[in-house]
Amino acid sequence: MLFSWDLLIQGFADALTWSNLLWAFVGCLVGTLIGVLPGIGPSAGIAILLPLTTMIPPTSGIIMMAAIYYGAMYGGSTTAIVVNIPGEASSVPTCIDGYEMAKQGRAGAALGISAISSFVAGTLGLVGLTFFAPLLANVALAFGPPEYFALMFMGLSLVISLSGRALLKGLIAMSLGLLASLIGQNPLTGAVRLTFGWLDLMAGVSFISVIIGLFAISEVMINVEAAATLIYETKIKGWMPTWKEIRQCFGAMLRSTGIGFFLGLLPGCAPAVTTFIAYDVEKRFSKTPERFGKGAIEGVAAPEGANNATTSGGFVPLFAFGLPTGPALAVLLGGLMMYGLQPGPMLFQQNPKFVWAVIASMYIGNVILLVLNLPLVGFWARIALIPFPILGPIIILCCVIGAYSIRFLMFDVWITLVFGVIGYLMRKLSFPIAPMVLATVLAPMLETSLQQSLLISLGSPFIFFTRPIAAFFMALAFLSILRGIWIQVRTHAPEIAIDESDD
Amino acid sequence: MKKSNVGMLFALLFLVALGVGPGSRTAWSEPAKSFPTRQLTYLVCFDPGGQSDREARRQAPLLEKFLGQNVIIDYKIGGGGALGWRVLTKAKPDGYTFAGFNIPHVILQPLQQDVGYKTEEIVPLFIFHKTPLALAVLETSPFKTLKDLIDHAKKNPYLVSVGGSGAYTGYHMATLRFEKLIGAKLTYVPYTGAAPQMTSFLGGHLVAVFGASDDLTRYRDKVRILGFATDKRFPGFPDVPTLKEQGIDMVEGVDRGVAVPPGTPPDVIKKLEAAFMDIASKPEFQEEQRKNGFIPLAIGHEEGKEYLKRMTALYTEIFAEVKKR
C-alpha cells in the first residue's frame, strides 16, 4: 500500500458524499451510545449491526462499522468519570482520576478533556495510519510468541504502581485476577481446569464479566448499603477544562498517542492493555506523581488518548494484511469478507478507492465525535444528579444486558453478579480493583504466549532474553519490579493498608 | 415452578431422543407440509465475523426465501464450538433449531474429554464445504520442496516447528500423522485460532504450518505450499502436488455443515435438507466458495450420517495411537 495525495483526496471526496456522511454519523452515534453503556462493547455493537451489510453498500457499511469502533472509545469514558463505572474495558484507568475529579465537582472538565484528548490522539493516529502504514505494517509481524510474552509480562508489572502503597493487597488482587482467568479450558490445549466438573464453566470467565462485576455491580451495592440518595454530593464547578489544563495535558496526549498507536499495531494489544500502560507512563513522567489517583487531569487525558490512538493503529495490520488486532476488528473483518472484499495484502491494490474512503471517513468521524461529545458533556455530567434509587437500577439493568451480550449466554450474567459480590468485599477490605482487572485482561495472552514460546525454544526460558524486542520488554519489566520493591523498602511501610489509587 | 417444568420438558425430550429414537412419529412432529410454521434458529458456535458466521449469514436470507419463515442467527460461543454443540444436542428436536458444525471438531472433542455432548448426538443435515489442509513454508524459506523439509527434520529432531490452530484439532492430527509417516520428530505449536496462527507464521516465527486452504489462498503470494493433504490436487493451486503424490498417504481437512438434534423427524429433515441443497446447487454459491479457497460440497443427511460415522471410526483409531505416545 503506497500513499498518494490523489488517492487520499479521492477518499475524502467519497467519504463526503451525503450517504457516506450519514452512515459515518450513524456509526459515531451508535458508537458513543455503546461506549456509554457498560459491558456492551464495540465488538457486540458491530456484530448486532452486521445484518445491515445486506442493505447498505460496502463503503458505507465499513465506514459505519469503523465509526462504531472508534466512537465507542469516546463514549467509554463517560460513565467511568461520572459514576466510576467503565463503559469499556479500555476505560478502567480513566476511572481512577476521572471519578476523583467528578467527586470534586469537575466531571465536566474531565469529560471535556477526554473528548479533546480522544480527538487529538485519534487524529494523530490517523496521520500515522495515512502516511506510515507501509513502514509500520511489519511491526505486527515482528512480534512472535516470546515478544508477546515479554510485553504482557511488562504489562503485569504495572500492578506494582497501580497498587499504590498497598503492594501486598495489589499482588493478592492480581493473583485473584489470574486465577479467575484460568477457569475453563486452556486456550491452546483445550484441557479443562478449575471447573469442578461443571460443564457451564468450561467456556471460562470473560474479563468483561469481571470488569462489570467489580466496578459497576459493587459500586451499586456500596451505595445501596449507604442508603445514598445521590451517587456523590457535588457542586458542579465549570463545564469545561480551562485552557491551562488543556495545555497541561498536551504532553500526555502526545505520549499516549505514541504508546497507543504503536501498541495498537500488535494483535492482542486491545485498547484495554494500552490504556493501562499509557496511564502508568504518564504517572512516571509527571513531576507531581502524588496527584495521580486524586484527580489529576493528565490521568484522564492519557488513557482516553491512548485508546483512540490504539484504534487508529489497529487499522494498519487490518488493511495491510487482513489481520485483526482485537475482537472488534475481527468482526469488522467479517463484515469486509461478507461484502466479498478479500482482506489481505491485495486489498490496497485491488480496492484502493474503498480503503482510502474509509480512512478519510475516520478523520471526518473524529470531528463528528468531538462536535457530538463536547455539547453532551453537560448532559452526561448531570447523570450524577439522578436520584440513586432510580440510577442504581438503571445501572444494574445496563450491566445485565452488557454481561449477556458478551457471548449471549445467561451464564455470563450470573458470573458477573458473582464478581459484583467479590468486588464489594474487595472494596470493604480496601483491596485495589485495577490490578485484578489488569490481570484478567492480560492473562489469556500471557498464558498462550508463554506456552508457545517454551514449545518453540524446547523449554528454554532464555528465548525471552536472546531476542532483542523481547529482551527490551523483559528489562523494562524487571526495572519496574525492582523500583517497586525499592520504594517499599525505602518507606519501611510495606503495609499501609489504605490504598490511594482506588476510590 | 417454571424451571421444573422446563426440566420436565427436557427430560421428556431426552426420552424421545434416546429411547424412542428416530423414525417414531410422535405427537411432537408436525406434518411436513406445514413445516416450518414459525421462525427458525440457526446456531453459530464461533465468534461473529468468523467463517461459520459468514456462511450462516450468506445462507440465512436464501433459507428464508425457500422456507418462507424468518431465520435468526444466534450465537453460542465457547470451548472451540463445544458449548454450542452441547446446546444443540439438548435443543427440542423439531427442526426449528439447527447449528453449524465442523468435522473433525465434533469427533475429536468428545474423544478428548467430557464436553457435554457425544458425536452420535450430532445429526448431520447437510455438509456444504471442505477446507483441506496443506503443509506450507514461507516464500522466503530455504526449503524449496517437501523433501528438503523432511531431510532437515530428520537431521534436527524437534527443531522444525509446525503451527496449527488448537490442540486435538485437525491441524494437530495432521502434524502428528505427518510426523509418523515421515519418521521424524517435529514440534507442534498450537494457536488460539487460524488468524493468530497465520500472523505468527507470516512473521517468520515458525518453520512451517499446516494451514487451511482458505487462509493459504488469502496469502498465496507470501507462502510456498509443499503439499496438500488431499486425494486430488486442490483446484486453487493446480501446480502444487498432493502429499500422497509425494509418498505421504494422508488426507486432512475441515468440513463445515449444518446439524440438527437427535430425534428430529425425518420429514422435517427432508424439508431443511432440500433448502440447503437448493443453496448449494446455485452456481454463484459454488463460485463464491471456490474464490474463497474452499471446495464446495453438497452432502445430504443420509450420506452425511455415513460420512460422519466413517470419519469417527478413522479419527478414533488415530486418536488412540496419538494417546499411546
Reported by name, the CATH topology of the largest domain in chain B is D-Maltodextrin-Binding Protein, domain 2
CATH homologous superfamily designation of the largest domain in chain B: Bordetella uptake gene, domain 1
| Main sheet characteristics of chain B | 10 strands, mixed
What strand line-up does the widest sheet of chain A have?
1-2
Largest interface: A-B, 54 and 53 residues
Strand content of chain A: under 5%
Fraction of helical residues of chain B: 40-55%
Taking pLDDT < 50 over at least 5 consecutive residues as the criterion, the unreliable ranges of chain B are 1-31
Mean pLDDT of chain A: 88
Q: Using only CA atoms, what is the Rg of chain A?
A: 22 Å
Q: What does the overall shape of chain B look like?
A: globular
**End-to-end gap of chain B:** 51 Å
Layout of SSEs?
The complex is a heterodimer of chains A (503) and B (325).
Chain A lengths: L4 H11 L2 H19 L5 H8 L8 H26 L8 H12 L3 H30 L2 H4 L2 H13 L1 H4 L4 H16 L1 E2 L6 E2 L13 H19 L17 H6 L1 H15 L6 H15 L12 H24 L5 H12 L8 H4 L1 H30 L6 H17 L5 H19 L5 H23 L6 H4 L1 H24 L12
Antiparallel strand pairs in A: 1-2
Helix pairs in contact in A: 1-18, 2-4, 2-18, 3-4, 3-16, 4-5, 4-6, 4-15, 4-16, 4-18, 5-6, 5-15, 6-13, 6-15, 6-18, 8-21, 8-23, 10-21, 11-19, 11-20, 13-14, 13-15, 14-15, 19-20
Chain B lengths: L1 H19 L19 E5 L6 H17 L3 E5 L6 H9 L6 E7 L1 H8 L10 E16 L7 H10 L5 E5 L4 H13 L4 E5 L2 H9 L5 E5 H6 L4 E6 L24 E8 L5 H15 L2 H9 L3 E5 L1 H24 L1
Parallel strand pairs in B: 1-2, 1-3, 5-6, 5-7
Antiparallel strand pairs in B: 3-9, 4-7, 4-8, 4-9, 4-10
